[in-house]
């Protein structure tokens, strides 16, 4: 049975606006699988919910350290300069283990990338979390963890999740030096649709979610949130 999925159109946003919008969408707990490809306004970086800001700032060049946002999800430091960033928000009642969610999501994305990225494969081994550099910060793309996507022995896709009750928020970054954005977005969307048996319908972000995101953006820009650890 084919279900309806929602491919959300959103305007260009900086790192703080992107994190606020993802959190607002997850808190709205949509009944459908929602996929959103980020449109960036400027460069920046994001870092996992539990990371220490002093370590993050030491790990980043000044232009990114000035525009780094704490994610609602976990994981390491991710620079957003030329990457393809996307998020998925979907109901997942009964799926309790994060490993199985990663396996399903990254397995689907891998199926879409195989025709476009030579040698793409899932990492079979690695550490339990993003490795720490000499500055102490966990860095997402230094070394893989199991179920990341690799190509030519380099990690090209990592992601992080957070549960909001029976709703999952996944945030992923595809880091390729020659990113063909339109082609890769099409391949990823088609692969997720096949894995979840979806037919995409394109929509703008609902007005109530945009309003909630505008309120949450104040939090995401605040020193209280960014420097909470």
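-> sequence recovered:
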């Amino acid at each position: 049975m084919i279900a309806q999925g929602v491919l959300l159109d959103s305007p260009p946003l900086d790192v703080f606006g992107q994190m606020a919008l993802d959190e607002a969408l997850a808190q709205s707990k949509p009944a459908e699988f929602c996929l959103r490809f980020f449109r960036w306004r400027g460069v920046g970086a994001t870092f996992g919910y539990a990371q220490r800001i002093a370590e993050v700032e030491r790990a980043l060049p000044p232009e990114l350290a000035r525009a780094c946002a704490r994610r609602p999800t976990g994981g390491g430091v991710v620079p957003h300069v030329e990457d393809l960033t996307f998020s998925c928000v979907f109901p997942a009642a009964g799926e309790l283990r994060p490993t199985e969610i990663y396996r399903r999501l990254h397995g689907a994305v891998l199926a879409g990338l195989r025709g476009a990225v030579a040698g793409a494969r899932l990492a079979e081994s690695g550490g339990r979390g993003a490795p720490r550099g000499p500055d102490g910060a966990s860095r997402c793309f230094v070394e893989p963890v199991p179920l990341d996507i690799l190509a030519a022995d380099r990690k090209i896709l990592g992601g992080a999740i957070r549960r909001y009750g029976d709703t999952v928020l996944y945030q992923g970054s595809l880091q390729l030096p020659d990113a063909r954005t339109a082609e890769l977005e099409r391949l990823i969307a088609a692969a997720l649709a096949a894995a979840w048996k979806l037919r995409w319908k394109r929509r703008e972000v609902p007005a109530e979610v945009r309003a909630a995101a505008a309120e949450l953006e104040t939090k995401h820009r605040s020193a209280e949130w960014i420097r909470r650890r």
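The chain has a mean pLDDT of 90.
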